[in-house]
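Workshop exercise sheet. Pairs work together: one partner reads the sequence aloud, the other fills in the structure field after running the prediction. Swap roles for the next sheet.
Pair: D.N. / O.F.
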Amino acid sequence: MPSRLVLGCGSVGRRLAVAGNGRVHVVTTDEHRVETLRSDGIAATRGDPTDPDVLAEVPFDPETVIVGSDDPARNRAAVRVAAERYPDARLFAFAGRAPTDADMTALTAVADDVVDPRAEISEFLMERVGDAGLRTRRLKRVLRNAAAPLAVIAHDNPDPDAIASAVALKHVAERAGTPAEACYFGDINHQENRALVNLLEFELTELDPDEDLSRFGSVALVDHSRPGVNDQLPEDTEVDVVIDHHPPRAPVEARFVDLRSDVGATSTLLTGYLRKLGIEPTPSLATALLFGIQVDTRDFSREVAGEDFDAAAYLVPHADAAMLERIESPSVSVETYEILARAITARDVREDVVTTYVGDIGDRDALAQAADQLLGLEGVTTTLVFGTVDDTVFVSARARGTDLDLGEALREAFGQIGSAGGHADMAGAQIPVGGLADDEEDTDEVIRGVITDRFFETLGVGENTAARAVYADGEYLGTLDRSPERGDGD
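Structure field:
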């Protein structure tokens, strides 16, 4: 059981004395405070916390010593005595009211942790009146005044980051007094994405492209930022809220816009809003947000920032670890294994690049899994797997250990005949079949030839050359024209 000794019981010392669990003993000169503490069931001694003889009467050796009076000079003396009496204890010191620089120097020379009220007040105020505080209040104001219900729309075929962000913003909106629905167009096919929604029992609204959306009073976009781009909204849709971590490729218009490409996941941004608004996430929401951050940063190894680590550290105590493990290890469908087998059999290897066409498919997310698996082949740094669903060719690409920027490479290769984009090491594309072949041609052969040739040509890969860098040293633009796969759009 943890134990702590509180020396001096000013306003801070009092709060620390009654907070938490474990064995606590307080030493203070304030007789009234001693009586109050004892009435609350807390052991307290009336005495001078700077007197070594008084400390000798404490009935245990504490793991933590807290120096917490409001007098800086008394705290300096108490810290010296405590450090000598309890050399193995963690020593935490409150500087007191209006400490001088000399007080701070003396305290930090001895204590393990020192709290300067001047800095704490400054941080408190800046969090509320600075950029972060202003942004939070503006979001709350816009949500409170938004016409109900609010449609919180993730990008097409949403991945974990988009799903978690939509559910989180729905929660924030409802706490602001506006009913909301987490919505998406397309499908949720990837095993992990289905497991996320099903195991955490999220209520998501699947929208049809032909659906009358007039029943919604307002619209919010998460993990993408423009209507009609990677969602199936009309391009002229008026948007109230946009929250995204991808840099925009065109102007973004909404009543509230938060675009921060210096973080690795939109889930990180939504976690920040929950914290600043004092909204404790449910275990299901915390689990989803944590998984969203993990996936978008590839387990904190890609485009990760300090805010992502901070958000994850906050979410871990609230998340359901057992549920997270089940989401991360879902069952794999038979079709996924069949597509992987086709991808291996039909692969075209040129130097360190592999392309493969798997024909007609029902589960487009299997392409991403096949692209990931083919990266395990010896000597391979870049993979591209593509297949056909109805009248569209879906492409998934992966790279590892190369200077190639896949997002830019796919835009160059396929941007004129379809939509493409993604990250430097993970990207995707969608290409209409009608633009590749007519009814009189062998469609599969034409698709295989056009996609393969364009990709190899863009990379400069020939008989005896490896993939060259494409925009490797240029500015990374991110994407909003993203593939619907689990990771290609993040």
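Discussion prompt: The domain at 334-459 is CATH 3.10.310.30 (Diaminopimelate Epimerase; Chain A, domain 1). What would you look at next?
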